[in-house]
């Protein structure tokens, strides 16, 4: 498959308006696929995302004996036997954090060996805390480098009933353990330790999805969940649209003074990034300090928007952006300074964006290195709506979560040149 090398955005010079639907939620689709795959019977997931990340999850489940039909662009029909089978080959999960973390834990429920692996980016993303936590349950799991590949020799049985997990680097470890625990042989208490974790809302997404597939999970303290060994039941499940994808459309609307109808009100999302809507709505008077910890995937959107704000913005609570698809703090400062030197500064793990509304309307040729990160590509495209000369390198990386991104902007009136 050939990937498009670059794409230059021509500022539309007019408000963007019309209908533009974000795709289904990546986070919810990958939870629902896994839970449906663990269940006995047939589940129908509608409104689902079809993208690199969800394809990796679906392929991995197929490799473990789950039957998955795809009758249309947004539906998965998943039939599980109630037990995942050992795959014949390592599971390759690209750079899909959700698939990698969730399947590492779920592999403990397989009777046999599972190797969970990813691409060169995933092989740099830490998984040590999850591996250590699984070991405390007596699970045989190794990750030599502290990152994938991970080898899990599962039995479906646990030797303890309490896990303590530090979710400071990734809340996905906690979600992974919660989803695994319902498939075990005894009730398990999962307790958070260490720093406050980012995006607690992702844990709520996890427990909501688990309950929809018949699990019993109770929050027994602000940092503890008890999961009963119920296993999962097949269910019909509607996936809501992706809130992180929605942030680009909300930002495009305020940047161009347009009117974009997403077909879904901002206050109906259950995903953490939906809280970015209220922040975006304050543009061009964004707050002087934005805590990104509870809306992490929206930070690239907000940081590029901040470049056009009336006053500077400091982003705090974003340290774990350094271990996402790429080091997003570095990618954002590099890209912004590439547009104009001095536009962004890193202070420790904070990012300060020195705003300049006068950027709008200028011609500032800049090639944006996306570091194969969909969110860097999608957020810097927003700069291209106001500045002439913004070229996005490797624009096809948006396929991770929003394959129709460039087409969606085009349908709103955005045009491209130098597409090759
Ligand atoms: O649980 C999830 O679906 C996610 C949790 C977040 O990651 P971390 O928990 O690694 O911060 C987020 O950045 C990611 O896109 C999706
Ligand atoms: C961090 C992200 O993805 P993941 O961790 O699921 O790879 C993201 O989509 O922004």
From TrEMBL:
Positions of 3-phosphoshikimate binding: 26-27, 31, 170-172, 297, 320, 324
Record-linked SUPFAM superfamilies: EPT/RTPC-like
Pathway(s) where this gene product acts: Metabolic intermediate biosynthesis; chorismate biosynthesis; chorismate from D-erythrose 4-phosphate and phosphoenolpyruvate: step 6/7
Signal sequence annotation: none
UniProt cross-references to PROSITE patterns, sorted A to Z: EPSP_SYNTHASE_1
Keywords for the protein's UniProt record, in alphabetical order: Amino-acid biosynthesis, Aromatic amino acid biosynthesis, Cytoplasm, Transferase
Keyword Zinc-finger: no
Transmembrane domains' residue ranges: none
Active site (catalytic residues): 297 (proton acceptor)
Subcellular location: Cytoplasm
Domain of life of the native organism: Bacteria
Record-listed E.C. numbers: 2.5.1.19
Start and end residues of each Enolpyruvate transferase domain: 12-409
Start and end residues of each stretch annotated as Disordered: 1-24
A matching Pfam family: EPSP_synthase
Biological function: Catalyzes the transfer of the enolpyruvyl moiety of phosphoenolpyruvate (PEP) to the 5-hydroxyl of shikimate-3-phosphate (S3P) to produce enolpyruvyl shikimate-3-phosphate and inorganic phosphate.
PANTHER family per UniProt: AROM/DEHYDROQUINATE SYNTHASE (PTHR21090), PENTAFUNCTIONAL AROM POLYPEPTIDE (PTHR21090:SF5)
Subunit-level organization: Monomer.
Family statement: Belongs to the EPSP synthase family.
Name by which UniProt lists this protein: 3-phosphoshikimate 1-carboxyvinyltransferase
Native source species: Rhizobium anhuiense
Gene expressing this chain: aroA
């Amino acid at each position: 498959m050939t990937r498009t090398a670059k794409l230059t955005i021509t500022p539309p010079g007019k408000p963007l308006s019309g209908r533009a639907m974000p795709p289904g939620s990546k986070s919810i689709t990958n939870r629902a696929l896994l839970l449906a795959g663990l269940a006995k019977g047939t589940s129908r997931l509608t409104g689902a995302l079809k993208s690199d990340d969800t394809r990796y999850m679906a392929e991995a489940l197929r490799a473990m004996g789950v039957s998955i039909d795809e009758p249309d662009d947004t539906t998965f029909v998943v039939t599980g036997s109630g037990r995942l089978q050992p795959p014949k080959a390592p599971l390759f999960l690209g750079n899909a954090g959700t698939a990698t973390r969730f399947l590492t834990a779920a592999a403990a429920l397989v009777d046999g060996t599972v190797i969970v692996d990813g691409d060169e980016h995933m092989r740099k993303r830490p998984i040590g805390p999850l591996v250590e936590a699984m070991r405390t349950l007596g699970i045989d799991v190794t990750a030599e480098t502290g990152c994938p590949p991970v080898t899990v020799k599962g039995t479906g049985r646990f030797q303890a009933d309490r896990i303590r997990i530090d979710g400071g680097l990734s809340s996905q470890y906690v979600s992974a353990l919660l989803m695994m625990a319902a498939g075990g042989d005894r009730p398990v208490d999962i307790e958070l330790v260490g720093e406050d974790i980012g995006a607690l809302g992702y844990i709520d997404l996890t427990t909501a999805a688990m309950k929809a597939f018949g699990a019993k999970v109770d929050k027994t303290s602000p940092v503890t969940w008890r999961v009963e060994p119920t296993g999962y039941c097949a269910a019909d499940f509607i996936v809501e649209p992706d809130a992180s994808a929605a942030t680009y459309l909300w930002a495009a609307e305020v940047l161009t003074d347009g009117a974009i109808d997403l077909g879904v009100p901002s206050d109906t999302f259950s995903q953490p990034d939906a809280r970015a809507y209220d922040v975006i709505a304050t543009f061009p008077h964004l707050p002087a300090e934005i805590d990104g910890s509870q809306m992490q995937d929206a930070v690239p959107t907000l940081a590029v928007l901040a470049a056009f704000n009336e006053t500077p913005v400091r982003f705090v609570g974003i340290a774990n952006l350094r271990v996402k698809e790429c080091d997003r703090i570095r990618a954002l400062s590099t890209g912004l300074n590439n547009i104009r030197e001095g536009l962004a500064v890193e202070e420790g793990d904070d990012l300060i964006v020195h705003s300049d509304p006068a950027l709008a309307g200028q011609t500032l040729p800049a090639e944006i290195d996306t570091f194969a990160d969909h969110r860097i590509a999608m957020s810097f495209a927003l700069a291209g709506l106001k500045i002439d000369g913004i070229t996005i390198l490797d624009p096809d990386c948006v396929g991770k979560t929003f394959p129709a991104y460039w087409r969606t902007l085009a349908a709103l009136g955005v045009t491209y040149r130098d597409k090759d």
